[in-house]
């Protein structure tokens, strides 16, 4: 049994992006400079990564969590390609809007609610925690990372707890 989530989609996107960027950097180092004026590997790798995400989501089915992740990854890769800032909450709102435009009844789907509330909770907590400094000894830095991990998971759990409680009555 495989549950397709945003993590699966993002792993595919990151892996394919990394491979493309590495290959394009190698190719650029081998080619004469006159063959690639103004050519940059990172934006091109971002564009070339999008078909892999679309193929993966087509293979596993366009369920709400996979659609949300694909739209968010697509907006991130598009921002990377256009060299714009990447705002995770803007990507989340864009994904929600596009899914609701294509399927308005999705707002009553528990998968939609859990997916978007969990990700929004993670973003809110992680944005607040990213301001935390990682200075000091190695043990102190690992302790802060462990604390961040616990807080992010707790945020996802506590954010989705009202939905789970009202849906399953437990």
Describe it.
- The protein is mainly α and 170 residues long.
- It is built from six helices and no strands.
Given as residue ranges, the uncertain stretches (5+ residues, pLDDT < 50) are: none
Main sheet overview: none
Range of helix content: over 70%
How many individual β-strands? 0
Helical stretch count?
6
What is the N-to-C order of secondary-structure elements (H for helix, E for strand)? HHHHHH
Provide the descriptors you would attach to this structure in a database record:
6 helices, single chain, 170 residues, mainly alpha, 76% helix, globular
The gist of it:
It contains 6 helices and no strands. It has 170 residues and is mainly α.
Give the helix/strand layout.
Layout: H1 6-30, H2 41-60, H3 64-81, H4 88-102, H5 110-130, H6 138-168
Helix pairs in contact: 1-2, 1-3, 2-3, 3-4, 4-5, 5-6
């Amino acid at each position: 049994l495989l549950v397709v989530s945003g993590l699966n989609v993002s792993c595919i996107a990151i892996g394919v992006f990394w491979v493309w960027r590495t290959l394009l950097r190698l190719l650029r180092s081998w080619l004469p400079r006159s063959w690639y004026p103004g050519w940059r590997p990172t934006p091109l790798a971002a564009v070339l990564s999008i078909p892999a995400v679309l193929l993966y989501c087509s293979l596993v089915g366009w369920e709400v969590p996979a659609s949300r992740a694909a739209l968010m990854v697509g907006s991130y890769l598009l921002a990377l390609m256009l060299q714009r800032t990447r705002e995770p909450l803007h990507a989340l709102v864009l994904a929600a809007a596009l899914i609701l435009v294509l399927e308005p009844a999705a707002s009553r789907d528990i998968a939609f609610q859990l997916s978007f509330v969990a990700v929004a909770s993670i973003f809110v907590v992680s944005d607040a925690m990213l301001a935390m400094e990682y200075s000091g000894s190695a043990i102190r830095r690992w302790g802060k990372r462990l604390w961040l991990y616990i807080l992010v998971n707790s945020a996802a759990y506590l954010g989705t707890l009202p939905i789970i409680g009202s849906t399953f009555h437990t």
